[in-house]
Design goal:
The chain has 399 residues and is α+β, with helices and mostly antiparallel strands. The protein folds into 2 domains: 131 residues, Glutathione S-transferase Yfyf (Class Pi), Chain A, domain 2 (Up-down Bundle), CATH 1.20.1050; 173 residues, Nucleic acid-binding proteins (OB fold (Dihydrolipoamide Acetyltransferase, E2P), Beta Barrel), CATH 2.40.50. It contains 12 helices and 15 strands. The longest helix has 26 residues. The strands form 3 sheets. Strands 1, 2, 3, 4, 7, 10, 11, 12, 13 and 14 form a 10-stranded antiparallel beta sheet that branches. A hairpin with a 7-residue loop joins strand 1 and strand 2. Helix 3 packs parallel to helix 5. It is found in: Cytoplasm.
Length: 399
């Protein structure tokens, strides 16, 4: 079925809104044949009317959890149609009801803020802006994974399987004289020593179960390297000023996670206008320990370039290459870094990010990179689509 046929099934004024916006945005029908089919399919669902019924909002909310847009990874007519169909439903709800389906609320607010949609909606009286109190909404928690508890061997049992006779000797007292027990103990000790030496020669494995055995090395042991940092492409789907801090933004950033967008607090109010933050794609540091910022917990950090002349010289968001998607891996060029797995969470006590950060910079080409302070080798920061850039700043510091 064609795009026009699908749009014709929409009721007024949603149909007129879609037609108006589609006239100004060529990509609204879909950039590829596959995308075009998805757009038509979703418009048909909206036209049927069941998608936005009260009893189906919960299902729609679950569908929208990992999505920024409903049909593709960019704005299409399907989003305009769904926004128009949702408007009379959302506009009647009160704040507590908004919070009961946060993904729908987040999606609706994002679409209504997109410039082409807002322009088309403002041309009619049917789609006024619906205001949301995101600052007062319950915060989405992203707790760190609890460390696994180490199992301790019972005091009266030897955890090693190389000498089960010790357990028998301690748990079953046969009444033998002390001298005999002592001799058995010495013989068993000799056997255990020989067995341990043979095991070392044959397999080289460490016996961690014995008292004094070596523990596995932590994953962040050794010199800090850039690949320990978890960088990903993010997409700002909502941004508001912090209610209790004039210099802070509170952003909802889509990082391609099933749990939905992360709440991130950034001190950029005095450097980047809020209009330039909305709908922005960026690079986020995702494995820092969550931090409270004036009462709001932040679960990531936005990577920015600061002028070599200081903050007064300007601060810019590092931009991922075109066609990037939320959650895309951002990595450092170089055989030693490209296929490395970042740490699940950086240990603040080891100051890994702080040690590496002085090497972050922007080149003459505006490309973001890490320069090894020892070898002076340059490792560009990139995704599979290309290298990440600063808009204008050369020789900037990244943090």
């Amino acid at each position: 079925m064609s795009f026009q046929n699908s749009v014709s099934k929409l009721g007024s004024p949603v149909k007129e809104l879609v037609q108006s916006v589609a006239q100004t945005e060529n990509s609204l029908t879909g950039k590829t044949e596959k995308d075009q089919a998805e757009v038509v399919q979703w418009i048909d669902k909206v036209a049927q009317g069941d998608l936005v019924k009260a009893e189906n909002i919960k299902t729609l909310n679950a569908t929208l959890v990992p999505k920024t847009y409903i049909a593709t990874n960019y704005l299409t007519a399907a989003d305009v149609a769904l926004y128009g169909a949702l408007h009379p439903v959302i506009s009647k709800l009160q704040a507590p009801e908004h919070y009961s389906h946060p993904s729908v609320t987040r999606y609706f607010d994002h679409i209504q803020s997109c410039p082409p949609v807002r322009k088309g909606a403002d041309a009619t009286s049917s789609f006024p802006v619906v205001a949301f109190d995101f600052a007062g909404a319950p915060k989405i928690e992203h707790p760190a994974e609890a460390p696994k508890k180490k199992e301790k061997a019972p005091k009266d049992t030897d955890a090693s399987t190389s000498n089960p006779q010790k357990t028998v000797e301690k748990s079953q007292d046969t009444g033998a004289p002390k001298k005999e027990k002592k001799e058995k103990k010495e013989k068993n000790k000799d056997k255990e020593t020989v067995g341990a030496e043979a095991s070392k020669k044959d397999s080289g494995k460490k016996d961690a179960g014995k008292k004094g055995g070596n523990k596995p090395a932590p994953e962040d042991e050794g010199e800090p390297v850039p690949s320990m940092i978890d960088l990903r492409v993010g997409h700002i789907i909502d941004v508001q000023k912090h209610p209790d801090a004039d210099s802070l933004y509170i952003e909802q950033i889509d990082l391609g996670e099933e749990t939905g967008p992360r709440t991130v607090v950034s001190g950029l109010v005095h450097y980047i206008p809020i209009e330039q933050m909305r709908d922005k794609y960026l690079v986020a540091v995702c494995n820092l320990k969550p931090a409270n910022m004036r009462g709001v917990k932040s679960f990531a950090m936005v990577l920015c370039a600061t002028s070599k002349d200081g903050r007064e010289g300007g601060i810019e968001l590092i931009q991922p290459p075109a066609n990037s998607k939320p959650g895309d891996r951002v990595y450092f060029e170089g055989a030693e870094f490209e296929n490395a797995t970042p740490l699940s969470q950086l240990n603040p006590k080891k100051k890994i990010f702080e040690t590496i950060q002085p090497g972050f910079t922007t080149l003459e080409s505006l490309e973001a990179a890490w320069v090894n302070p020892v070898t002076k080798s340059v490792h560009k920061i990139r995704t599979k689509e290309g290298v990440c850039l600063a808009p204008t700043l050369v020789g900037a510091s990244l943090s």
